[in-house]
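sry for the spam today, last one i promise. struct tokens for design, 375 residues
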């Protein structure tokens, strides 16, 4: 073997490099392309799996229209969409301060559920005995306080003994479910575990019963954006998230920031629970949070923990969810297939983050490499 061959370094066909930076416009272009490719893949999967489309391929346009129809085809659906986006966004906002601090709060589901339970408990025991406005205030205080306590328990263990907050907050979700089930057994002696709507503790109606919820969450979004980006507390959250050593060096008390931030996170989950309880539900079940505590994690992550961007990601996910339900109804398929379709789109969206964070380089051909060497 010649010395030339021995010294030759074979470059791989493909190699990756982490991007130093990327413009916001290019990043969002990649995300939009990912959504479009995901929808294309959904159309292919739907054609292969839905008998109606196989018999009449021309209905593929109707399949795509269903995603929009599920959220915007009537006033009732539009308000339902706005309400669901608001609740999902509220939970996502609640998780954001903790995530920015690198405290992985996976307990949004349980914290929200405890907020619903606390608000309903106040309405159950005090409804009809105090003025309605006072009842609503007491329900709000109870929801904020109990959810904050529920969230701060893992924070205390993390700050004092360094426990794993991911597992701790995850397990607290299940405990919250059992607590709700326990109270339902007490409140409903018949054993049906269905409380039914209460007569008291409903938010006043202006234009639509969901309007107050939408306005409250919009104000919260702007407020949290300002808090995280333009206040001392928001700065401390960012520093602790970036480097605990740096935080200690400049005099930031890490434990204090963790506990304070988790109290805020839990209280905001309690607000979401209050809006569920005092909004249209007026009851509590073990499924009152509806899995949105887990979906909120994805919303916050896709929105890069920016409250303003999270409006878009929450709206997109809700369009997919309501569109999936409409597909199930219009095309006569079970609930599993629409969930698979939503999963395909989300897979493409999550995958787009790879292309935002990394560049792909291909090996130059030999002739081009030779010309480069001559130059």
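last one done:
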């Amino acid at each position: 073997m010649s010395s030339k061959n021995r010294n030759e370094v074979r470059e791989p066909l493909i190699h990756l490099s982490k991007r130093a930076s990327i413009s916001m416009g290019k990043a969002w272009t990649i995300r939009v392309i990912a959504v479009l490719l995901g929808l294309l893949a959904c159309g292919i999967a739907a054609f292969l799996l839905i008998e109606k489309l196989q018999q009449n391929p021309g209905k593929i346009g109707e399949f795509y229209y269903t995603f929009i129809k599920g959220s915007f085809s009537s006033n009732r659906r539009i308000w339902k969409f706005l309400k669901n986006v608001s609740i999902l966004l509220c939970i996502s906002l609640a998780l954001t301060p903790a995530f920015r601090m690198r405290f992985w709060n996976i307990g949004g589901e349980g914290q929200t559920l405890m907020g619903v339970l606390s608000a309903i408990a106040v309405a159950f025991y005090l409804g009809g005995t105090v003025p309605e406005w006072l009842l609503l205030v007491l329900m709000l205080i109870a929801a904020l306080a109990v959810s904050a306590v529920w969230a701060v328990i893992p924070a205390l263990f993390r700050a004092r003994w360094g426990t794993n907050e991911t597992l701790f907050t995850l397990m607290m979700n299940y405990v919250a479910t059992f607590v709700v089930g326990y109270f339902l057994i007490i409140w409903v002696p018949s054993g049906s575990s269905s409380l039914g709507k209460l007569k008291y503790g409903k938010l006043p109606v202006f234009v639509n019963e969901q309007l107050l919820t939408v306005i409250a969450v919009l104000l919260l979004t702007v407020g949290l954006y300002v808090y995280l980006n333009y206040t001392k507390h928001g700065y401390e959250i960012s520093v602790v998230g970036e480097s605990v050593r740096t935080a200690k060096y400049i005099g930031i008390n890490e434990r204090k920031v963790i506990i304070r931030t988790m109290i805020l996170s839990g209280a905001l989950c309690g607000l979401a629970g209050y809006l569920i309880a005092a909004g249209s539900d007026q009851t509590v079940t073990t499924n009152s949070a509806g899995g949105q505590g887990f979906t909120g994690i994805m919303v916050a992550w896709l929105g890069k923990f920016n409250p303003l961007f999270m409006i878009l990601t929450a709206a997109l996910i809700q369009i997919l969810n309501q569109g999936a339900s409409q597909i199930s109804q219009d095309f006569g398929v079970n609930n599993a297939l629409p969930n698979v379709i939503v999963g395909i789109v989300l897979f493409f969206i999550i995958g787009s983050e790879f292309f935002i964070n990394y560049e792909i380089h291909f090996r130059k051909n030999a002739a081009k490499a030779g010309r480069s060497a001559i130059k």
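Residues 18 and 358 are 4 Å apart (CA to CA). ok im logging off now
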